[in-house]
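Revision sheet: C-alpha coordinates.
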Amino acid sequence: MFVKQLSVFMENREGRLEQAAEVLKDQGINILSLSMADTMEYGMLRLVVSDPELAKSALREKGFSAKLTDVLAVRLDDQVGELYRLTHILRTNGLNIEYMYALAASEKKAIIVKTSDGEAAAAAVLAGGLALYGNEEL
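Predicted:
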Protein backbone atom coordinates (compact mmCIF):
# COMPACT_ATOMS: atom_id res chain seq x y z
CA MET A 1 0.00 0.00 0.00
CA PHE A 2 2.85 2.39 0.76
CA VAL A 3 5.91 3.25 -1.30
CA LYS A 4 9.27 3.93 0.34
CA GLN A 5 10.51 7.41 -0.46
CA LEU A 6 14.16 8.27 0.01
CA SER A 7 14.72 11.74 1.48
CA VAL A 8 18.21 13.20 1.21
CA PHE A 9 19.19 16.38 3.04
CA MET A 10 22.10 18.12 1.33
CA GLU A 11 24.00 21.36 1.29
CA ASN A 12 23.05 23.73 -1.53
CA ARG A 13 26.44 23.82 -3.23
CA GLU A 14 27.77 23.09 -6.66
CA GLY A 15 28.11 19.41 -7.49
CA ARG A 16 26.33 17.98 -4.47
CA LEU A 17 23.31 16.72 -6.43
CA GLU A 18 25.65 15.22 -9.01
CA GLN A 19 27.49 13.37 -6.23
CA ALA A 20 24.24 11.87 -4.94
CA ALA A 21 23.23 10.84 -8.47
CA GLU A 22 26.64 9.22 -8.95
CA VAL A 23 26.22 7.13 -5.79
CA LEU A 24 22.89 5.83 -7.08
CA LYS A 25 24.30 5.18 -10.56
CA ASP A 26 27.26 3.26 -9.15
CA GLN A 27 24.86 1.01 -7.19
CA GLY A 28 22.68 0.38 -10.25
CA ILE A 29 19.69 2.12 -8.66
CA ASN A 30 17.05 3.51 -10.99
CA ILE A 31 15.36 6.81 -10.11
CA LEU A 32 11.63 6.51 -10.79
CA SER A 33 10.63 9.96 -9.55
CA LEU A 34 12.13 12.90 -7.72
CA SER A 35 11.43 16.28 -6.24
CA MET A 36 14.01 18.85 -5.20
CA ALA A 37 13.26 21.76 -2.89
CA ASP A 38 15.94 24.18 -1.86
CA THR A 39 16.79 27.28 0.10
CA MET A 40 19.95 29.33 -0.07
CA GLU A 41 21.76 26.95 2.29
CA TYR A 42 20.33 23.44 1.89
CA GLY A 43 18.15 21.23 -0.26
CA MET A 44 15.78 18.33 0.29
CA LEU A 45 15.88 15.71 -2.43
CA ARG A 46 12.94 13.29 -2.36
CA LEU A 47 13.16 10.20 -4.55
CA VAL A 48 11.31 7.03 -5.37
CA VAL A 49 13.95 4.52 -6.45
CA SER A 50 14.20 0.89 -7.51
CA ASP A 51 15.97 -0.22 -4.29
CA PRO A 52 15.27 2.20 -1.41
CA GLU A 53 17.22 0.32 1.30
CA LEU A 54 20.36 0.01 -0.81
CA ALA A 55 20.09 3.64 -1.89
CA LYS A 56 19.80 4.83 1.72
CA SER A 57 22.79 2.83 2.92
CA ALA A 58 24.96 3.74 -0.10
CA LEU A 59 24.23 7.46 0.33
CA ARG A 60 24.90 7.31 4.06
CA GLU A 61 28.26 5.62 3.39
CA LYS A 62 29.17 8.63 1.23
CA GLY A 63 28.27 11.12 3.96
CA PHE A 64 24.72 12.05 2.96
CA SER A 65 21.91 12.34 5.47
CA ALA A 66 19.28 9.96 4.07
CA LYS A 67 16.10 8.42 5.47
CA LEU A 68 13.11 6.44 4.25
CA THR A 69 9.53 7.64 4.55
CA ASP A 70 6.25 5.94 3.68
CA VAL A 71 4.29 7.82 0.99
CA LEU A 72 1.37 6.98 -1.25
CA ALA A 73 1.69 6.48 -5.01
CA VAL A 74 -1.86 7.19 -6.15
CA ARG A 75 -2.81 5.97 -9.62
CA LEU A 76 -4.47 8.68 -11.66
CA ASP A 77 -6.16 8.37 -15.03
CA ASP A 78 -4.97 10.70 -17.78
CA GLN A 79 -8.08 12.86 -17.80
CA VAL A 80 -9.36 16.20 -16.60
CA GLY A 81 -10.26 16.38 -12.92
CA GLU A 82 -8.13 13.57 -11.48
CA LEU A 83 -6.05 15.86 -9.24
CA TYR A 84 -9.28 17.48 -8.02
CA ARG A 85 -10.71 14.02 -7.29
CA LEU A 86 -7.70 13.10 -5.16
CA THR A 87 -7.52 16.39 -3.27
CA HIS A 88 -11.28 16.34 -2.67
CA ILE A 89 -11.13 12.82 -1.21
CA LEU A 90 -8.31 13.81 1.14
CA ARG A 91 -9.85 17.13 2.24
CA THR A 92 -13.28 15.67 2.91
CA ASN A 93 -11.60 13.09 5.14
CA GLY A 94 -9.82 15.82 7.13
CA LEU A 95 -6.38 15.01 5.74
CA ASN A 96 -3.73 17.60 4.97
CA ILE A 97 -1.36 17.20 2.01
CA GLU A 98 2.18 17.94 3.18
CA TYR A 99 3.67 17.65 -0.32
CA MET A 100 3.21 15.87 -3.63
CA TYR A 101 4.99 15.36 -6.92
CA ALA A 102 4.44 13.39 -10.11
CA LEU A 103 5.72 9.89 -10.64
CA ALA A 104 8.08 9.94 -13.61
CA ALA A 105 7.90 6.29 -14.70
CA SER A 106 6.50 6.55 -18.24
CA GLU A 107 4.02 3.66 -18.14
CA LYS A 108 2.70 4.54 -14.67
CA LYS A 109 0.49 7.57 -14.17
CA ALA A 110 0.53 8.47 -10.52
CA ILE A 111 1.25 11.16 -8.00
CA ILE A 112 3.38 10.72 -4.90
CA VAL A 113 1.59 12.11 -1.84
CA LYS A 114 2.68 12.64 1.77
CA THR A 115 -0.23 13.39 4.09
CA SER A 116 -0.80 14.12 7.74
CA ASP A 117 -1.97 10.51 8.30
CA GLY A 118 -0.80 7.92 5.79
CA GLU A 119 -3.02 5.06 6.96
CA ALA A 120 -6.16 7.18 6.91
CA ALA A 121 -5.20 8.68 3.53
CA ALA A 122 -4.66 5.22 2.00
CA ALA A 123 -8.05 4.04 3.27
CA ALA A 124 -9.77 7.21 2.02
CA VAL A 125 -8.15 7.00 -1.42
CA LEU A 126 -9.19 3.36 -1.83
CA ALA A 127 -12.71 4.06 -0.53
CA GLY A 128 -12.91 6.96 -2.99
CA GLY A 129 -12.34 4.61 -5.90
CA LEU A 130 -8.70 5.40 -6.64
CA ALA A 131 -5.91 2.81 -6.58
CA LEU A 132 -2.42 2.74 -5.09
CA TYR A 133 0.87 1.39 -6.39
CA GLY A 134 3.21 -0.52 -4.10
CA ASN A 135 7.01 -0.69 -4.33
CA GLU A 136 6.84 -3.99 -6.22
CA GLU A 137 4.70 -2.52 -9.01
CA LEU A 138 6.98 0.44 -9.52
